[in-house]
Amino acid sequence: MRYRLQLYLIALWGRDFAIEPLSDDATSPLTQRPCLRGDTIHLPSRIEAGEEVSAMAHYRAAAVHAAAHAIYSHAFDAQDLKPRQRLLVELIEDARVEYLAIQRFPRLRYLWASLLPPKPSTAMPFPALIWQLSKALLAPEAAYRGDFWIDKGVGLFLERRACMEDPTISREIGLRLAHDLGQMRLAMDEGGTLPLLASYRDDNRHLWLQVRETLSEDAQNAAECMPASRPEAFLEEATEGRRLAFSEIALTGEGGDVGYRVEVTSDDASLSFYQSTAPCPEPNRMRYPEWFEDLGFERQNWCTVREQSAPTSDTVEAERALGERQVLLRRLRNVIGALRMRRIVRLRAQESGDDLDLDAAIRVLAEWRTGRVPDAYVYQRRRIQNDSSLNTSLLLDLSESVNTPVSAVGRRVLDLAREAVLLLGQTVDGLGHPLAVAGFRSNGRHEIDYLRVKGFDEDFDAEARGRLYGLTGGGSTRMGAAIRHATASLAAETGSHRLLLVVTDGVPADIDVFNPDHLVSDARHAVMQARRQGVQVFCVSLDPRADVYVSRIFGLAHYLVLDQVEYLPERLTRLFLKFASTA
User: Fold this and answer.
1) What is the pLDDT of residue 545?
2) 3-class DSSP state of 580
3) What is the dihedral of CA 332, 334, 339, 340, to 10 degrees?
4) Helices 413-431 and 326-340, interaxial angle, to 10°?
5) pLDDT at 25 exceeding the cut of 60
6) Angle of helix 83-104 relative to helix 168-183, nearest 10 degrees?
7) Alpha-carbon gap, residue 233 to 222, rounded angstroms
8) Residues 480-539: pLDDT tens digits?
9) How far apart are CA 525 and CA 532, in angstroms?
């Protein structure tokens, strides 16, 4: 049990807390409350499983709560404070550290809420008020309002959300609420009944300076008596009895090793956890976070994108495709011409021009009749206003599935995608909008290839077409990291409009991900981040069954599912023209 709790805390906080049992002295309930001494968490030696909550969940809740205190709390001066005041300060501090922990790990709220004590059966008001306030502060935004004192406590807590990192707010709020209870003439031990506190919360002795000094001396004496070896650093396999050493190898470690390694050992092994924040040593490698829906937060520097130029091939096939699409290209040129001429601005009161400006002519006539010298600016000219720039980035899914042939035309999905990009490039060049084209594929979180076909500042010439036809399919579809990388490139471009077009034929997946919803949630989070940066994101899916997951990733009205893949070249170009006409 101890080892599992230590690993759990390391996974959450990145710190190695020592877990020690309390003595079996059960003469008082207070002797079996969890306590924190430095980085050592003392938990009851035994906890009975409840009807709905297991003993392991109870231990986990107590350990995480104590660890949150170690990370977010500092000691207060208890001098001249009454027991009622100390109790309220401790209650607010418990709520504050839990609020901060829940912001990072939202599901902790449900774990702690399941262990709150039942409503006191006594008719005494003090225990009932303490119970109600403790419950309300666990979810302050959704707290039930009814009692004035509870409303005041929740209101003061919510007013200080912006400075929740400051522990002094617990003392401030606690003393104000304790003063109100004193004005209400409510005694803490009224009727001989003390408030019933949540069993997973520690005794909070570490929050007070006088007590903390004593605890520090005890912890130092205990550390001097600790053995040099750490047998608890092993993981035990219940089925085979083997002990495994567990470590995470740094991303910049020797030998190029990446990720996790588990090996059988017979020697003592230390348990350590590292998360590298150093920049990638190579300029073409960028690290990006990944969203974990189950945990409710992003793991920073989780994925590595390797940007490189796509391999070059000959352009014979590209020239042949353009020759076969001459009819469509002529129609596109007509549409392009109409778009370029669609905005005409009349410049009035000009010295010379094509037409007479009637308003200016009437004004000149009036000035002449009143004896004033009129000006000669009585003409108007027409000028074509240039369309606002639409920076477009096209992202192609190059996973293994693009090698699948389309039975209707006898060509692969990749061949149709190349042709679609070729026509789109001709269209964008005609309109003069910046365009970037790239493909992506993955082989685990540290091998996400981003193959650049054309940059924003490059022409769609024979060299770019050669890179387009040099793209090959293979690997998996880790879409979220590719979207983040394309968004970063778009955000660096100047322009009033930014568009990211994603062409894919399958659900996001990768070889090191076993939860089918994980990469879907991550891609959705990446799309939301892109839109917050002012980037429009639209998906063209070639999977007839894609409505369920693409609507979740990109949102309604932000995707197009093609049931007939052979129409991709024409539909993709028309889609861009639709965006260009509204830019």
Assistant:
1) 85
2) helix
3) 110
4) 30
5) no
6) 140
7) 18
8) 999 999 999 998 887 778 899 999 998 999 988 888 899 999 999 999 999 999 999 999
9) 11
